[in-house]
Amino acid sequence: MTILLIYVKKTYNNMKYFNPANLAIIACPGGEVFAGEVIEHLRHKYRSSRKQTVEEISKRYDISVDQANLQIELINKIVVRGSAAQSGSHNNGPVKVPVKFTLFPNGEIKAEIEESIRGKDVYIFQDVENRYPVKFSSGVVNNLSINDHLMTIYVTVDAAKQAGAERITLVIPNYPYSRQHKAKGREGLTASRIGKIFESLGVNHIITLDIHSRDIMNAFNKMRLENLHASYQIIQTLINMDDILNDDFVVVSPDTGAVDRNKFYASALKKPLALLYKERDYSKLAKDASQSNISQIRLLGNVNNKTVFMADDLLGTGGTLIKGMRLLKENGARRIICAISLPLFSGDAISHFDEAYREGLFYRIIGTNAVYQEDVVKREWYVNVSISKLFAHVISRLHQNQSVSSLLDNAGIINRLLSKTLAPEPQNELPFSQDAEE
Predict the structure, then answer these.
(1) Per-residue pLDDT reduced to its tens digit, 300-332
(2) Is residue 166 exposed (0-12), middle (13-18) or buried (19+ Cβ within 10 Å)?
(3) Angle, nearest 10°, between helix axes 259-269 and 231-239?
(4) Which residue ranges form the domains of the chain, and what is each CATH number?
(5) Global pTM?
């Protein structure tokens, strides 16, 4: 018992052992695939952490590995609450909490949590841009709109709050209505309003990816938003792409709003930065990739006979991007690679990109698994990058009340990655300084 008490104090004061006993994960319809991938990474992290902890206890207190395992089981049983303590389901790492989701004939949605989560740290997953058919507990299969997915979040958060969750974190890689972050005339600031609704329901944290505008974060009173970036995973993909970084390479910002993001890549890769300056006609609404509200595009910089890399946070219908790539080709670009954090491919965007690829307008589109896709991932021109492990690391640290700064500002790990890969230039440090990816 002395060993137990000493190690309990050491473990939970220093937070060296990732204990998932008090961690609850709920996956809304639409967010189940991403949640499943993140859970696998959390389980791997748990197994690794547990193995190290067992070895440390065994060595420090001169007991067998089996005895050390028993000590950890006692620790878990002390902190775990509810039915998981009886079933021991936490022993293999985090698991999904069973939730019954019902879609009624009139369109109403209900969430019923079927296991105690009282006093737990709850993470609710949802992919609001999942347009593929999702299955409800009753067996009903339906395509949901972004508003249906939002309503599912609302009822799930409310159910978790009513069930006594101690802390609620939303894991929504694509923040809903993020493009409605500023008002032009008589229109609402819907992006911030959505966040205030989450906050009023009792949400403590949001974890998202490359939010469209940081202004959205300023609308919250107490709720925190952790804005992650996929730049490390994207640069890793570029490194593995046919020695592409050894080419005559230029980073091009697709518009003025993406300058900071692309400046980050240019600084990290030590490549020149160019810009596509676009003038928009906001009276026009782009319904598909064949249409665009761009009235004029001008290139500031040189792309002749160069490999072009462009990064943006979001791809909707894709018409603007295709128009920009066509201009770059007309200005002599040899091949074009685009990286998109949130590849929505709205409407018939995929068929338009198929056509653009056949025309030779681009070489590859790099997208993340933040948005569930089935069709585009089969295309030769599409490279799917997983950011599930990144989200797992952030959830693990938040659950243990540890700092996530190094994961939010990933310049350090990108620096180390590139120093191992690219030819060293000792006379120059990577010029990150205070530049951080937006």
Answers:
(1) 999 999 999 999 999 999 999 999 999 999 999
(2) middle
(3) 50
(4) 1-229+387-402 (3.40.50.2020), 231-385 (3.40.50.2020)
(5) 0.86
